[in-house]
Amino acid sequence: MREHGTSRTTIGWAALAAAGALALSACGGGPQPGPEDPGPAGTAAPRVQLPKLDGEKLEVAAVWTGPEQANFTKVLKEFEKRTGAKVTFVPAQDPIVTFLGTKIAGGQPPDVALLPQVGALVSAVHNKWAQPVGPEAAAQLDANYSPGWKKLGAVDGTQYGVYYKAANKSLVWYNAKAFEAAGVAPPKTWKELIAAADTLSASGTPAVSVAGADGWTLTDWFENVYLSQAGPEKYDKLARHELKWTDDSVKDALTTLGQLFGRKDFLAGGTSGALATEFPKSVTQTFTGGDRPAAAMVFEGDFVAVNIAQTGEKVGEGAKVFPFPAVGAKAPVVSGGDVAVALKPSKGAQALLTFLASADAAEIQAREGGFVSPNKAVNPGAYPNPIQRDIAKALVAAGDDFRFDMSDQAPAAFGGTPGAGEWKALQDFLANPSDVAGTQAKLEADAAKAYGN
């Protein structure tokens, strides 16, 4: 499978790097707009009109679990209330293309699926599973989305998807008590990050909680280092496999990442602990234990806030955030997102796409935290705290100046499959960070096979 040419994306460097700085400064300061305060966006957008669907049954599939699934279910409940339809959430597994293929082969496709990779959308279209968006959903997209986000949901010029959820995947969340106890300030450069990690670990608190059991988090680590160090042009070429993974730029990025992964004392639980840690635990163990948590920092996107909430810690107080440190001239910002696509030609599926493209749906989940929408009609006051509000505002302000998560642009066999491709190669690298050349060779062999070149 070749990648669709419009999927060359990462949220604008300046805008979202600034968001991290805004968020950091917003941890203190004066009063902020509350969740019901319209804030600077002005008057709220009119409620979207939805058809009556009394008695219609819909299924919606996504890979979301835990609080993320629970919060999305609240959105579906509002859709049920306003249409009379009955909606069932269907938990999916990665790779979602394989999951959907099994469902479709069995004659039981969900009405709508939320796909976490651009490559998955392209596959769904090429497999003739996806339905183009109808006029009502298209009208919401035209009113509420920048052309760049619309393009991400299109294949060969036809609109198939609605980007319901976005993510800034270049944030480092830290335990403020642990930083204070060690006398460490948030780093701005990679060199400062390594120095801070050294100080934190020497103080008795491992520096970083790495979710090595979930390979997708390791791809995000690599992408941030690579984008900042190699620059956007090489990032785009590597994303399209126009540059080989044996290139020196990949060697440099892996060597840099090895400065962190190669220090067992930096990692919560050491190397073996990191390899056994799944993403939710990587967050919760960073924000429990007072000023002696399992780790002082955890890297991942704005959605980390959902897992922080489970610890009882508050974003902006005990849990703070800084932008991913600059490795090269500019700090990186990598974006991800989930695109809703109809898999059945039904009135209900199109109505749900229309709802998900509206500000109404996004504001429900925004209030729950750990969610950012690229929908520019969403009231900033819906976000529950200044940090998430600033991240969301910067996302919208970035307009079309963005790039997307590299592994999410890749064929799922390479960039989106547990235990295979990039996920597995980077897990092996975490286990043995000195084997840069071997990691490159494995990445290139798997990429060449998946891309067909």
From TrEMBL:
Domain of life: Bacteria
Alphabetized InterPro entries for the sequence: Bact_solute-bd_prot1, SBP
SUPFAM superfamilies: Periplasmic binding protein-like II
Entry-linked Pfam families: SBP_bac_1
Keyword Transport: yes
Transcription as UniProt keyword: no
Keywords carried by this UniProt record: Transport
Family: Belongs to the bacterial solute-binding protein 1 family.
Name of this protein: Multiple sugar-binding protein
Lineage: Bacteria, Bacillati, Actinomycetota, Actinomycetes, Kitasatosporales
Gene behind the chain: msmE3
